[in-house]
Amino acid sequence: MSARLLEGGPVAARIKQSVVDKLMGIPLGRRPKLTAVLVGDDPGAKFYARSQAKGCEEVSLRYELVELPADISEGDLVLKLRELNNDDDVTGIILMMPVPEHIDGRAMQGLIDPLKDVDGVHPVNLGHVVQGKMDLAPCTAQAIIELLDEAEVDYYGAEVVIVGHSEIVGKPTALLLLDRFATTTVCHIGTSDKGMLAHHTREADILIVAVGVAGLITKEHIKPGAIVIDVGTNRQKDPETGKTRIVGDVVAADAMEVAGMVTPVPGGVGVVTSAILLRNLVTCAELQGKV
Ligand code: NAD
């Protein structure tokens, strides 16, 4: 058996087109603006900031990067976030993670105006997810649902297993799937430590993995014919070329052999997540009555 690839590209293109369509006729100067706040110079955060800027440019959304020194005090960062909250020209705010250790990133995200919370990480927006509203749900959770919709899955009563219980992926995805009447199990490090991971994952019609451990999921973990959504993004040195490459949490060759459908890494969840950020920015503008 050879699985079908569930590519993110076409889904991302459809989402970006919906953004373009919604903003048709609005001059560039009046279009929604994403303001990214980068504290320090973490290379991962800088990489994502660059790719966000590119994404905005592609669909003619405005983008601004606010770069702050790594030793900024929490108090000064609070003032900056308040200033952006009050700036009518700023539609969406994203605090690039990770932030330096002396800053409580989650607390800072909680200070962003929920209507400008383009990342969907404010407790108010996470609370909306509990109530079944997807408007400003975390981008990756929305991306997973978009990919599953694309695969035309029948959620009703489907056995879904999510590995990873983070606030931005595992938990909100579980809630969105419960809302679609999937039977949803969430596994995490405790499940693995008790030696129960494969026991659960092997039952999954839909297996979603968001852990950050390359090669965690092998063929023993996958039910034949299952849909596998690999969220993991791990940097790895290719032993042959010595070059750094991105791999998922699932051994791709194993998934291709056993599963029915698999998202590639890269080119799966990540590209859809980037497109959702753009859609969320438009949603912020709508919620603020700006478009
Ligand atoms: P996290 O790093 O906050 O938490 C990791 C989760 O994995 C926890 O629930 C932990 O208990 C669990 N875990 C750790 N080791 C485990 C093991 N051996 N067995 C089972 N569970 C284990 O999670 P996150 O922020 O959701 O990130 C997870 C991965 O997803 C990372 O690789 C991250 O880079 C990637 N990610 C990708 C996107 C995307 O758009 N593609 C978006 C967000 C995160």
Description of the structure:
The chain is α/β, with parallel strands linked by helices. The chain folds into two domains: 26-115, Rossmann fold; 137-270, NAD(P)-binding Rossmann-like Domain (Rossmann fold). 39% of the residues lie in helices and 16% in strands. The chain has helices spanning 9-22, 43-58, 74-86, 105-109, 123-130, 139-150, 170-179, 189-193, 197-201, 252-258, 269-287, and strands spanning 4-5, 33-39, 62-68, 92-95, 159-163, 183-187, 206-209, 227-230, 234-237, 244-247, 261-262. The protein has a six-stranded parallel sheet with strand order 1-11-8-7-5-6, sandwiched between helices. A three-stranded parallel sheet has the order 3-2-4, sandwiched between helices. α6 packs across α11 (269-287). The longest helix is centred in the C-terminal third of the chain and has 19 residues, at 269-287. The protein is globular. The mean pLDDT is 97. The structure holds nicotinamide-adenine-dinucleotide (NAD). Residues 140, 163-166, 168-170, 187-189, 191-192, 197, 210-213, 216, 231-234, 269-270, 273 line the site of nicotinamide-adenine-dinucleotide (NAD). Nicotinamide-adenine-dinucleotide binds at residues 140, 163-166, 168-170, 187-189, 191-192, 197, 210-213, 216, 231-234, 269-270, 273.
